[in-house]
């Protein structure tokens, strides 16, 4: 699976951005997809994760407490793309954001090492 992340940019506090993670080589069916972020000098941290059935009729999502209620992970089956909608952005959300995927084995992992496939990062900068 090859992942391509995009959508980052510079936004003022309180603003919104939508990140995209497009997959090629395989569909996201039967895969868990996670978003992580890494700020300068800090470890990579979990942001959100989701898994979807093939038809999208069943899905499960999980969020870090720091983004719950502000960020939403979703999937567009036709485009084979997973999105991270980020609203009410704060300066502390500034980081390089990465999408990752791995075969769904039940549950949604918050651990980066449990994801085998990674996209390149996309920079999100939130100004105060």
* Range of strand content: over 45%
Distance between the termini: 37 Å
Outline the low-pLDDT stretches: none
Level of helix content?
under 10%
Number of helices: 0
Shape, per Cα inertia axes: globular
Largest sheet: 7 strands, mixed
Q: Provide the structure class.
A: mainly beta
- Whole-number mean pLDDT: 93
Rg of Cα set: 14 Å
Total strands: the figure is 11
| Secondary-structure element pattern, one letter each | EEEEEEEEEEE
What tags apply to this protein structure?
7-stranded mixed sheet; 128 residues; 4-stranded antiparallel sheet
Summarize the structure.
The chain has strands at residues 2-6, 9-12, 17-24, 31-38, 45-52, 59-63, 71-76, 81-86, 95-103, 117-118, 122-127.
Write up what this structure looks like.
The chain has 128 residues and is mainly beta. Strands 2, 4, 5, 6, 9, 10 and 11 form a seven-stranded mixed sheet that branches. The protein has a four-stranded antiparallel sheet with strand order 1-3-8-7, with no helix packed on it. The model has no long low-confidence stretch (mean pLDDT 93). The protein has strands at 2-6, 9-12, 17-24, 31-38, 45-52, 59-63, 71-76, 81-86, 95-103, 117-118, 122-127. It is built from no helices and eleven strands. 0% of the residues lie in helices and 52% in strands. It is globular and about 40 Å long.
């Amino acid at each position: 699976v090859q992942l391509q992340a995009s959508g980052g940019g510079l936004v003022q506090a309180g603003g919104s951005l939508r990140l995209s993670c497009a997959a090629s080589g395989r569909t996201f069916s039967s895969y868990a997809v996670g978003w992580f972020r890494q700020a300068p000098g800090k470890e990579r941290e979990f942001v959100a994760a989701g898994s979807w059935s093939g038809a999208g009729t069943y899905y499960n999502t999980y969020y870090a407490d720091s983004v719950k209620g502000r960020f939403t992970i979703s999937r567009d089956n036709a485009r084979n793309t997973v999105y991270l909608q980020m609203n009410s952005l704060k300066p502390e959300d500034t980081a390089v954001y990465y999408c990752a995927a791995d075969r769904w084995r039940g549950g949604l992992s918050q651990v980066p090492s449990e994801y085998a496939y990674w996209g390149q990062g996309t920079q999100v900068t939130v100004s105060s």
